[in-house]
Amino acid sequence: MAEKKTIVRFTLNERVQHILVIIAFIMLFLSGFALKYSNSSVGGWLIHFMGGMENRAIVHYTGGILLIAVGVYHILYMLLTIRGRDQLHRLFLHASDWQAFCSSFKYIFSSTRPHTLHGRFTTRQKLQFWLVVGGSLSMGASGLLIWFHNETMSLFSKWFWDFLFILHSHGAMLVFLVIVLWHMYDVHFKEAFPMDNSWLSGQLPLERLKQEHSLEYKELVESGQIEDEKDEN
């Protein structure tokens, strides 16, 4: 282990889940954007690119099914596997996370940050995860109700139907903003420009682990899973 300069950050299972979620989000966003802005030139081009409005709907439904399927699998993974339960435990927000987030909020789009010790996940990563989970759940639930509109209309009044469309449309935009403007910028452009390739390779350099997740680094050193780099010299 002393020769190891990287550590497994994400397993192959986790990387495949992540990639499938990316594919589902791209399908959902492009097909949803095409419908919402169908009268615009970009929306019209997207509909044409997908082969018409009927095919656009198929793309949207397929993306929704894929997202729900991966979501269900991810829940089972987090609850039924040892690694998944450990990840879930580390993703819970604590009082120290809220304090760290509030104190560093003004540094989100800055090149400097206050010195904060983090474990496996930083406070920002935890917030991004739970925001995406919440957004995905609301999008999945509202999307299914809209998809099976006959059953929905027979059970609920018109105001609820209008509420579903607002929730689905504007909620999707919020999820998009969290992923693109916060998650991608924060993880890729800011942490490891031009891209943090750990989502592809699954590997994270020990040097970065020590700098960005010092508490996890210390935990791994104390458990004997890695050796402190200073001891190698």
Could you walk me through the main structural features you see in this protein, from its secondary elements to its overall organization?
The structure is a single chain. The chain has 233 residues and is mostly helical. The chain has one domain: Fumarate Reductase Cytochrome B subunit (Up-down Bundle). Helix content is 71%, strand content 3%. A two-stranded antiparallel ribbon has the order 1-2. The longest helix has 32 residues, at 158-189. 14% of the residues are buried. The model has no long low-confidence stretch (mean pLDDT 85).
Distinct helical segment count:
11
CATH class term: Mainly Alpha
SSE order: EHHHHHHHHHEHH
Radius of gyration: 21 Å
Subunit organisation of the chains:
single chain
The residue fraction in helices comes out at over 70%
The major beta sheet can be summarized as: 2 strands, antiparallel
CATH homologous superfamily identity: Transmembrane di-heme cytochromes, Chain C
CATH topology description: Fumarate Reductase Cytochrome B subunit
Q: State the secondary-structure class.
A: mainly alpha
Overall tally of domains: 1
How far apart are the first and last residues' alpha carbons, in Å? 14 Å
Strands, count: 2
Q: Which CATH architecture would you pick?
A: Up-down Bundle
Mean pLDDT: 85
Shape: elongated
Q: Can you tell me the residue ranges where pLDDT is under 50 for at least 5 consecutive residues? A: none
Strand % is under 5%
**Lateral strand order in the biggest sheet:** 1-2
